From TrEMBL:
<protein>
    <submittedName>
        <fullName>Class A beta-lactamase</fullName>
    </submittedName>
</protein>
<dbReference type="GO" id="GO:0030655">
    <property type="term" value="P:beta-lactam antibiotic catabolic process"/>
</dbReference>
<dbReference type="InterPro" id="IPR012338">
    <property type="entry name" value="Beta-lactam/transpept-like"/>
</dbReference>
<keyword id="KW-0732">Signal</keyword>
<dbReference type="Pfam" id="PF13354">
    <property type="entry name" value="Beta-lactamase2"/>
</dbReference>
<dbReference type="InterPro" id="IPR000871">
    <property type="entry name" value="Beta-lactam_class-A"/>
</dbReference>
<dbReference type="GO" id="GO:0046677">
    <property type="term" value="P:response to antibiotic"/>
</dbReference>
<dbReference type="InterPro" id="IPR045155">
    <property type="entry name" value="Beta-lactam_cat"/>
</dbReference>
<feature type="domain" description="Beta-lactamase class A catalytic">
    <location>
        <begin position="63"/>
        <end position="276"/>
    </location>
</feature>
<feature type="signal peptide">
    <location>
        <begin position="1"/>
        <end position="26"/>
    </location>
</feature>
<dbReference type="GO" id="GO:0008800">
    <property type="term" value="F:beta-lactamase activity"/>
</dbReference>
<feature type="region of interest" description="Disordered">
    <location>
        <begin position="180"/>
        <end position="200"/>
    </location>
</feature>
Length: 304
């Protein structure tokens, strides 16, 4: 996680966004059934226009993947374009550790020194003298986006390469995990290191939080961590109705990168998976934080 400085964006970025990818909204049919209905096409065109308007309004590139897990209806926009994943990877790291480690391993205390502390270490900075159990480091990484906790946890799994290997085991061939905090947040355009796509992140989150990859108790632990996230208030949480429950993980980085991935539980019906990524293409650009909530509102209006 980083705090980008504010910089005015050049007009060329907004112009480049005019040719952005369209949104796709569909209810997957059980078998091929011919062209989409006029109403489905109209809904897709409406979402497309709204996402394009948001990109122009905020001077940002926007990626969206969302699915209603009950109906299968999806909303996508630049869903297969690469963006820096930034701290959203911490949700995947937590899930992999919950999958791999025994209860005894989770209780094991990891020690570290002042020299290991990074700029954003709100929890680990309080426990240098005693160290922290692995399960507490997981909570610090997910709920507070503690960068030192994330690096200590990466050490538990063989570093970035080890985490990427675990993601390949769940058929994620897209997400790249190459560096530790804080350099993974550089987000230089055209650099595929430490990048993913909205579709890949959303699919991974669904696999871990709602699938059967994790035992039920561990799956509930993961969703509890996501629900307890303290950094997500202005993002996906701000774009859904107040009576919907959200478990999410945010991320921010260079070039105005701002992301949020979430499991969303409406009062009725099945949960939604929403993955939204964005960037602004300028090294010291501020992130377009309200964009995430605005894009979420389009998703909710489209799938429900």
């Amino acid at each position: 996680m980083r705090r980008p400085a504010v910089l005015a964006l050049p007009l060329v970025l907004a112009a480049a966004l005019l040719s952005g990818c369209g949104a796709d909204v569909a209810n997957p049919p059980p078998a091929p059934s011919g062209p989409a209905s006029p109403s489905a096409v109209a809904v897709s065109a409406s979402a497309d226009r709204q996402f394009g308007e948001l990109e122009r309004r905020f001077g940002a590139r926007l990626g969206v993947y969302a699915i209603d897990t009950g109906t299968g209806r999806t909303v996508t926009h630049r869903a297969d374009e690469r963006f820096a994943h930034a701290s959203t990877f911490k949700a995947l790291l937590a899930a992999v550790l919950l999958r791999r480690l025994s209860d005894e391993d989770l209780r094991r205390v990891v020690t570290y020194t002042e020299a290991d502390l990074l700029e954003h270490a709100p929890i680990t900075s309080q426990h240098v003298a005693t160290g922290m159990p692995v399960e507490d480091l997981i909570a610090a990484a997910v709920r507070y986006s503690d960068n030192t906790a994330a690096n200590l946890l990466l050490n538990e799994i063989g570093g970035p390469k080890g985490l990427q290997g675990e993601l390949r085991k769940i058929e994620d061939r897209t997400t790249n995990i190459n560096r530790n905090e804080p350099t993974l947040n550089e987000a230089v355009p055209g650099d595929d290191r430490d990048t993913s796509t909205p579709r890949a992140l959303g699919t991974d989150l669904r696999t871990f939080a709602l699938g059967d990859v994790l035992p039920k108790a561990r799956r509930l632990k993961l969703t509890d961590l996501l629900i307890g996230n303290t950094t997500g208030g202005p993002y996906i949480r701000a774009g859904v109705p107040s009576d919907w429950k959200v478990g999410d993980k945010t991320g921010s980085g260079g070039y105005g990168t701002r992301n949020d991935i979430a499991v969303v539980w409406p009062p009725t019906g099945s949960p939604l998976i929403i993955a939204i990524q964005s960037d602004r293409g300028v090294p010291d650009a501020s992130s377009a934080d309200p964009l995430i909530a605005e894009a979420t509102k389009v998703v909710v209006a489209t799938v429900r």
